[in-house]
Specification:
The chain is an alpha/beta fold. It is 38% helix and 20% strand. It has a single domain (2-238), classed as NAD(P)-binding Rossmann-like Domain (Rossmann fold, 3-Layer(aba) Sandwich), CATH 3.40.50. The protein has helices at residues 13-22, 39-42, 59-66, 82-86, 92-106, 134-146, 148-164, 209-221, 223-229; strands at 2-6, 26-31, 47-51, 71-74, 113-118, 171-178, 180-182, 190-193, 206-208, 235-238. The strands form two sheets. An eight-stranded mixed sheet has the order 3-2-1-4-5-6-10-8, sandwiched between helices. The chain has a two-stranded parallel sheet with strand order 7-9. Helix 2 links the parallel strand 2 (26-31) and strand 3 (47-51). The chain is globular, with a radius of gyration of 17 Å. It binds NADP nicotinamide-adenine-dinucleotide phosphate (NAP). Residues 7, 9-13, 32-33, 53-55, 75-79, 84, 89, 92, 118, 120, 149, 153, 178, 180-181, 209 line the site of NADP nicotinamide-adenine-dinucleotide phosphate (NAP). Residues 7-222 form the NAD(P)-binding domain.
């Protein structure tokens, strides 16, 4: 398969690319600074590096890039600097999702293209009844006011859920919701749930970025796993060593 990854040089995106390469896929990456990429990627025939800022691509360029892709994955996230959090583009993840989906639709693919969005347990799947405590509602309300990236993550998933929906001829999607991200060297056991099993604010679990990358790559690679989760917002936690 040919897979486009945006946010590919990020801490999670790079793990996703590695997992896709292990699974023998061809990967296209759109990155702002190719110089920062691992040396091994630059000499790898299975990776096509597109040097651009994703939202600065024209519609025609985007349509051309996604034309031969069977799947698109986004690990985009706002850089944790003042400019990254409060500057433009405030709707980085949402706008990239909408524009990439429009580009996919413009190509009228014969089979639906898989779109995998890295999202967050701080976001609820409004297709389901996911109750949260009053205290958590208050904190999430504050995050919406104070942290534009949180709203961006919510809107990106809402776009897939409400606009692309469950019966789109051209796009099928999964929004993966990791809890608190940590770094680990190797893939370990992890668990996937339909909805959070703990509070993302007051009792967050942990998940390694490499496990998130592994799950996202597995969704793309494994049609049975895809059929199980498509149109949903699975939550991922790493299993603790004692489980
Ligand atoms: N931290 C957590 O515990 C947690 C938990 C759940 C979900 N999440 C979500 O997961 C996301 C990814 O996490 P991560 O740690 O892998 O993030 P990361 O390492 O900061 O990666 C972010 C990626 O987005 C790209 N990016 C940022 N601003 C951009 C812009 N204006 N235009 C184009 N590309 C841009 C970065 O590229 P450049 O290198 O070019 O900037 C990078 O590739 C987070 O941002 C968050 O929304 C986080």
């Amino acid at each position: 398969m040919i897979v486009l990854v945006v946010g590919a040089n990020g801490a999670t995106g790079s793990k996703l690319v590695e997992q896709l390469l292990i699974q023998k896929h061809k990967v296209k990456v759109i990155v702002r600074s190719p110089k920062k990429l691992p040396e091994l990627w630059r000499d790898n025939d299975s990776i096509q590096i597109i040097s651009a800022s994703v939202l600065e691509l024209s519609d025609i360029e985007m349509i051309e890039i996604v034309k031969d892709c069977h799947a698109v994955a986004s690990c985009l996230g706002h850089n944790l600097t003042w400019k990254g959090v409060y500057g433009q583009p405030r709707r980085l993840v949402t706008d990239a999702t909408q524009r990439l989906c429009s580009a996919i639709k413009s190509n009228n693919p014969r089979k639906p293209i898989k779109y995998v969005l890295m999202n967050t347990t701080g976001n609820r799947n409004r297709d389901l009844n996911e109750p949260i405590s009053f205290a958590q509602k208050c904190v999430i309300g504050l995050l919406r006011l104070l942290l534009p990236p949180h709203v961006d993550n919510e809107k990106a998933a809402d776009y897939l859920r409400a606009q692309i929906g469950q019966n789109n001829d051209f796009i099928e999607w999964v929004a993966v919701r990791p809890d608190s991200l940590i770094n680990e060297k190797d893939v370990t056991s992890y668990e996937i749930h339909t909805s959070p099993t703990r509070s993302a604010i007051f009792n967050a679990g942990k998940v390694s970025r490499i496990n998130v990358g592994h799950f996202m790559a597995s969704l793309i690679n494994d049609n049975n796993l895809w059929a199980k989760w498509k149109g949903q917002m699975p939550v991922i936690y790493s299993k603790s060593k004692k489980d």
